[in-house]
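Final report, Chapter 2: Outcomes

The project's central promise was a pipeline that accepts a single protein chain and returns its three-dimensional structure in a standardized token representation, suitable for archiving and comparison. That pipeline is now operational. To close this chapter, we reproduce one record exactly as it appears in the project archive, with the input sequence first and the structure output second.
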Amino acid sequence: MSRKPVAAHLVAFATVAIDLLGFGIVLPLLPLYGDRLLGDVDPLWHGPIIGLLLSSFSAMQFLCAPGWGRLSDRIGRRPVLMIGLGGSVVFYGLFAYASWIESLALLFVSRIGAGIAGATIGTAQAVIADSTPPERRASGMALIGMAFGLGFTVGPVVGSFLAGTQAGLSPAPGLAAAGLSLAALLFAFMRLPETRPEGARPRRSWLDWASWRSALARRATAVPLLLFFTATLAFAIFEGTVARFARDVLLQDLEPAEQFQRLGLLFAYIGVVLMLTQGLLVRRLAPRIGEIAMTRYGLTLMIAGLLLAAIAVSDPADVSLSVWQGGTLIILLAMALAVVGFAFLTPSLQALLSKRTSAWHQGETLGVNQAAAAIARILGPLLGNSLYGSQTAPRPTWPLSAGSLLIGIALVVGWSRLEE
């Protein structure tokens, strides 16, 4: 491999990892910040409104990811990534200000803006695709998964520690996230090479639905897209309710500062499993057994984890005793299985899409895939938090059961329709 692909891989990984550290700092705090800012609003409305707060980020990714991808096909990957990082600096700074003055409206604005800026992840995937031969594509895509894992490992610990340093809503997590995005912007400016293939002719419109029609018209690309959407939706349902479940059921007897710290450790555990799976397992297994087998195994592991978690918390009245004492290993194992399964799925399906798409449309197709995942992340928190219920009557098994049903459907499709 030449120096340019190596540099592109390393810088794309470092840039995305640093930026996602900021994302990881903020993510686990959103449901708890939202609950506080909702104040005296009827608890029955907390779930849907918190779901909207979480979903606003992904709604903007859905609208903007294909456009960023096409723009990167036209003007290059490097400038698009730097524009996105610059936007992250601004809107994470706004998140800090919104926390300081305790404004729910500005918190929504900050998440909408961060979603627009963060929709360039598909462009980072295109950098990997541009500089990786087809037979190494899945292992290259796993670098992005490792960056996500790093963000979810270190970010929640940092964010939860900073959030627990004062009684109100601390602006420190937002400031830390803005600082990390600024560091990523400077690093990309100094070291990121341009990887866009010569001769690309992307479509000119920003929101061109022809890219969706093109991707869904062929079974070779439609099935991976639909599987990626379904798996992401199931994982978003699970992920979007973890913070409320931990606070309301697992950590209800702790002080708020300690709740934040324990929540950070829980998200960090998820991130460690994701990062190690992407870095150690996927990069070694994918070239040997192929993306289709990795996808099928991932779906199997994911449904096993979600079902085991649903069984482990089937009696909410006993969860605070059974999970953190005798049942701790069971719930951690269930989470690990679901996360490992999702980690198997994401780079494998992205690699399949990339290999089944022409070089001139890598950014566009991967942007569509990112937008499809964004739709799933819009619906997931809304559905998950609505199923979860209110603080006074939590239903933690309902989101897990819904996720299991979705993965069951995907498993049938993955075993019968994934071959090209």
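Archive annotation: DSSP finds 16 helices and no strands in the chain.
This record, like all others produced under the grant, will remain available to the consortium after the project formally closes.
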